[in-house]
Amino acid sequence: REALVPFPVAIINDDEPYHYQPRWINYLAAVAAEHGAKWIIPFDADEFWYSPHGTITAVLDKIPETYDTLHVKSIQMRDFECRFTDEEGMGKVAYRWTPNRVVANGNHMVYPVLHDLVEGVLELREIQFRSFDHMLDKCVERVKMLDPTLPYSEGTHQRVLATMTGEEQAQWWAQRMARPVTYDPIPRIGGGSWANGMPCMRR
Fold first, then answer.
1. Residue 75 carries which DSSP code?
2. Fewer CB near the terminus (10 Å): N or C of the chain?
3. Can you spell out the DSSP letters for 86-126?
């Protein structure tokens, strides 16, 4: 919270017993629209959004009115410096605000798509798990907070990991960290390296 103080953001507390993601995302999108937002980018804390063509604001301002939905490829990162070469995420969306549009669970799609999907405008890097302990917290503890009204097919990867034994989870993590990566750092404002130019670190 302290890091957000210099920025024009609103903090809204979530004290619900379950993680009602679609309800919260769509509510927050409406709040953002009330404050003048024309485009909505529903993002998670483990995602880093940017555009290779300039600032996000400048790029979105140039999009013709005929386009209302951006499909954004999710580049899966092992850490801040290295991306997996054998994995691609499900992708996310950003969209032009209108009151009747609804973001689906996971932020992978918004309905209805009024005109066209545009790819390549924005990009995002995702660090799904920062460490073994983070993986356990995200997929074992948080699975208990999944919205019970969602179908069982939602959150499948979390549910599968949550049912594993401790030994199986450790083995899964070791296999993940042994997967091929390439040095391709998450872009930083002002450039520079996240790890002072050091090679890929298996954190």
1. E
2. N
3. EEE---EEEEE--TT-EEPGGGS-EE---S-EEESS-EEEE
Residue type, 102: V
Question: Which helix or strand (DSSP H or E) is residue 134 part of?
Answer: helix 132-136
pLDDT tens, position by position, for the chain (203 residues)? 788 888 888 888 888 887 788 889 999 999 999 999 999 999 988 999 999 999 999 999 999 988 999 999 999 999 999 999 988 888 899 999 999 999 998 889 999 987 877 888 999 999 999 999 999 988 877 788 877 777 777 777 788 888 889 999 999 999 999 999 999 999 987 666 665 544 444 43
Q: What are the start-end ranges of the H helices in the chain?
A: 21-34, 56-61, 132-136, 156-162, 166-177
pTM: 0.84
* d(C-alpha 173, C-alpha 61), whole Å: 42
Phi, psi of 176 (to 5 degrees): -65, -45
